Structure formats: C-alpha cells, structure tokens
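Possible regression after last week's pipeline update?

I re-ran a chain I had predicted before the update to compare outputs. Posting the input and the new output here so someone can diff against the archived version. Not blocking, just want to make sure nothing changed silently.
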Amino acid sequence: MIEVENLSKVYGKFKALDGLNLTIEENEVFGFLGPNGSGKTTTINLLMGMLQPTEGRVSIAGIDVVRHPREIKKICGYLPENVGFYDNMSAKSNLLYFSEFYRMSKNEALSRINELLELVELDTDKKVGEFSKGMKQRLGMAQALLNDPEVIFLDEPTSGLDPQGARLFRKIIREQKKEGKTIFFSSHILSEVRDVCETVGILYRGKLITKRKIDEFSSGYRILVQPEPFDDNLMDLLSEFGEISMSDRMILITSERDCRLEVSKKLFENGYYLKELYIKDIDLEEVYMKAIGLEE
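New output (post-update):
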C-alpha cells in the first residue's frame, strides 16, 4: 500500500530524513516510533505530499505522491499533532466546511459528519474555541476520516490526552482496521503503539534504525516483584523462574514465560506476602538503545 524508496529531506546542511526505505502493507497498522525531533512529522508530510523530497520516491496505492498529490489527498486522511479549527464555529460547521474540499454534497456530508461525531463521541453545539485539548483531538480524528480514506496518517494522536481519551482513540483505530484501512501511527510512547500496531519502525536522527513486528521488541517477560519481608533468601527461592536481580526492595525476574501465578504461590508457601507483582513494560529509551546498538 505504501512504498518508500531512499526518501530524504535536507534543509541546508541538516538531514531531517536520511534515505528512508519502507513498505507498509494494505490493512496494516504501522507504528512509527522516535523521540521528538527524529523526523516523524517530516516523514508524514513527505508521504502526504505536503513537502517535496530532496531525493527518493513515495507511492501510495500505486500513485506517485510527488506527481499526483491531489489524488493522494483523495485517498488519505491526516490528523496532525497540533490540529487547527475555526474557534468561532461548531464541530459540525467545521467539518461541513472541510467537506467542501472533497466536493461532497451537503446531504452526503451531513450524513457522514453525524456518523463521525457519534464515532468520536462529540455531541455538542459548543464553539470549538471552548473545546478541551481532548475534544479537539477527537474532532481532528473525525476530520481525518471525513473522506472515508483508504490510508490514515496519525501524528502523535494521543499526545496530551487523558486515559479515557487515549482508550477511545485506540478503539477507533481498531475499528478502522476492521474496515480495511491502512494506518500509519506516529508516537514517542511505546505502550500506545503496542496496543494497536502490528509492525513498528524506529526513527532516530532521521534514519530508520529498525522495523520489526511489535512482539519482537522484547524477548521473554520481565516481572517485578515486591515481597515482604525482603531478605537474602529470595534470590535462591525465585531462581528457578529465570534470571534474578534485586534493587530498592524490588526483584526483577527475567523469564521466558509469564510465571506470575507460580511466583505468587511460591512466595506464599514460604511465608511471604506480595505488595506488588506485575509485568514491566520495556520503555522506549531501552528500545532506542537496543536498536542503535544493533546498528553500531
């Protein structure tokens, strides 16, 4: 669906994007991870035809992005990180205005807008200037879906949202995948993309460091345990479950399987009780360092 070959963007002596090669399949949810300033937004702008590349080529659904930018915009939807609307207009009026760019009839547009506002859970006649950050993000998602696109680009869509808002976005992404959409989702938060993405690419200083299936980023399970009492016998007691390390009255078990139930039982049988027991998610900084280490 999306084919990127040797794509670069240079500003003077600064390479914002350096020789990106990438293939994203139809109906794939692709997570594009990287720290702020790594080139994620630049990449999306190039893929959408809003920036001209210094070199390289991009095609979406077989359409050359540079040669046919209008055709690309017909089949793509885009939610930028900082979405903008007319503050003196309602959500519905804003979407009705944007529908004119897609040459939708008023009846067709109103039907689609009502459907989308229900999807993003925005039922209000308030002016957009009175909206919270989360409400504006939800309206931005509705706008990105207005033309029923084949490909949806989401740039940091959950940034600044509360947990309820983030859950709604993940739900919408899953629903769009079920409808056959291809989704390009950029973020600097690993846990956000892990819930919805199948494949993840890591961008670092303008270069794609690695692209893998989401479950390949961490091998095995890392289980954190906080037992009471905390003593030296715990190392030997829990060693059967994997590699053990201790720090700040916490035990980290690195295991090939989720052994939380057995760990809990073992501790209880030996007179300990648990204050905490959970799987520790690998954080993004670790992923970056591991990925960069592979390259270096």
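Follow-up from reviewer: compared with the archived run. DSSP finds ten helices and 14 strands in the chain. Marking as no regression found.
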